[in-house]
Amino acid sequence: MDQTTWNFIFIGITFGIYVYIAIRSRAGSTKEYYVASRGVSPFANGMATAADWMSAATFISMAGGIAAAGYGASKFLMGWTGGFVLLTTLMVPYLRKFGKATVPDFVGDRFYSNAARMVAVICAIFICMTYIMGQMRGVGIVFSRLFAIEIWQGVLIGGGIVYFYAGLGGMKGITYTQVAQYCVMVFAYTIPVIFISMIITGNVIPQLGLIGDYVKEGQEHSQPLLEKINQISTDLGFKEYTEGSGNTLDLFCITAALMVGTAGLPHVIVRFFTVKNVKAVRKSAYWTLSFIAIIYLTAPALGMFARTNFIEEINEKKYQEAPQWFTNWESQGMIAWVDKNGDGIMQYRAGNVFAGKPEFEDSKRIENGPRPVTNKIDQVSENEVYYDKDIIVLANPEMAGLPKWIIALVMAGCVAAALSTAAGLLLVLSTSVSHDLMKKIIKPGISDKQEMRYARLASLGAVLVAAYFGINPPSSFVAKTVAFAFGLAASSFFPTLIMGIFSKKVNKEGAIAGMITGIGFTLSYIVYFQFLTESKEYWFGISPEGIGFVGMLINFSVAFVVSRFTPPPPQEVQDMVENIRIPKGAGQASEH
């Protein structure tokens, strides 16, 4: 069978499973739609949470970032995993004990104000819309390769699929769909790396292959793989692969923003509202971290192997002898070659090929030649090869010459990663509008049936907006776009939730002022440097991906100062805060 047939088999089977689960798990009440009736087992919830959290940024972009930046991409590994520890130890047990269905619901009741609830709804919308556009971009990239179509067409297909099963089943439907998606993801991520590790290092365990010797067939002498990639990198004008980032402050801020942003993501927090009690929350967290570790401990090896294969397959090769995967991605605008010196040989070096992303003259490659670009060529750099980092995971099995069924499996895994997180984000958006905005503020008297109708309409609107920004994202690199969402969560929800749980003195005025100033500062900084100027003269060298950490500090500071000069919370609210922190009887208190 050819590759297209294999792709359709794997994608068709997985989609069939997702649709079947969605139909069988159709939500019939708001309790099923919002929290799956709080009947999900810790094991299943751990698997679903891992799938929900490990988005297209993890599956598609993280290894691409590691392949391109080496040690410099460790900020994603440290930030995202560290943040999950914060989330599961400092926040979700207490939030689950509080017994609400959404994050804005907690904010509104804890800070005894519909104004605070409204600000939380707006923050949730900004965070989820920024995050989901990265997922839509990831879906578009996969479908563009799968069906040989443009990225925008792939985004629309993915958006339609997500809306179908997220809008139909709510939390009940997406929970069990995400369990299936995690199973697809973990096999799609690990199986190719095991094969590639055996080919490159002779070691069946990728993590050991990463620190082992390069023994690929045809090489006369073996040498440590890390030593080899460092040597190749410096020979081509790059810094050593294992060299750290030059800007330590920015690396720290990005890592911290990803960490506290993870702990403030509403679509991850609400997953822990689906289990029976606080004890089940802790068990669920254990399983989630275990499932996440399988993929995160594999990512560095995947990135290293991909970079090695990419350089060997492309550099100093004649264009006419380029492998099929290169021309496939080139025809879809994800790879480009500009023959600056006219020798017909592809030189991959440090530096830019041209200004910005590739702008092609037409939609197809010319016969026997590269796809022509209209960009202004960067004549200073010797580099002639452009590639989008988001294709690394997808192209890696093809680079290594793995069987066609493995390539199809990877395609299915990438789709599962993007769809799982997109579904969770859609649910948060829809519940924020239907439950927190309509039910709690605008129309308190609406029925369950009307509330679910508003939720599904909100999902449709969110899908349409997300599809637009998936086609026209603020950054073509999925992980970078997602990092913006983490920054917004870090500067808004994380400080507010922490103060709401652990401080009896922070009042509604402080919480509202803190959220507005924190997310307002962060969003303004991102918009200014991403859309309004081409300058890279960041304040103190802190990039837009890391500014959320500064926004978090602003939120904390403003909230405490404003609370200091305004009336304290009512005594019943202070008693409520004290109660949710008391371990004794936590399980019984949460069973409602």
List keywords for this structure.
592 residues; mainly alpha; Sodium/glucose cotransporter; two-stranded antiparallel sheet; 68% helix; globular; disordered C terminus
Largest sheet: 2 strands, antiparallel
Amino-to-carboxy terminus distance: 54 Å
Q: Which strand order spans the largest sheet, edge to edge or round the barrel? A: 1-2
CATH topology of the largest domain: Sodium/glucose cotransporter
Helix content: 55-70%
**Rg over CA atoms:** 24 Å
Q: In terms of structural class, how would the helical and strand content be classed? A: mainly alpha
What can you see in these coordinates?
- By secondary structure, the chain is mostly helical.
- The chain has 23 helices and 6 strands.
- It has a two-stranded antiparallel sheet.
- β1 (213-214) and β2 (223-224) form a beta hairpin.
- α16 (392-399) packs antiparallel against α17 (404-442).
- The relative contact order is 0.18.
- The model is unreliable at 584-592 (pLDDT under 50).
Please specify the SSE layout and strand pairing:
Blueprint: H1 3-24, H2 30-35, H3 42-53, H4 56-69, H5 74-98, H6 103-110, H7 114-147, H8 151-200, H9 206-210, E1 213-214, E2 223-224, H10 225-235, H11 248-262, H12 266-269, H13 278-296, H14 299-314, E3 317-318, H15 324-331, E4 335-337, E5 345-346, E6 385-387, H16 392-399, H17 404-442, H18 448-471, H19 478-502, H20 508-532, H21 547-564, H22 571-580, H23 586-590
Antiparallel strand pairs: 1-2, 3-5, 4-6
Helix pairs in contact: 1-8, 1-17, 3-8, 3-13, 4-14, 4-17, 4-19, 5-11, 5-13, 6-7, 6-19, 7-8, 7-17, 7-18, 7-19, 7-20, 8-17, 8-18, 11-19, 11-21, 14-16, 16-17, 17-18, 19-20, 19-21, 20-21
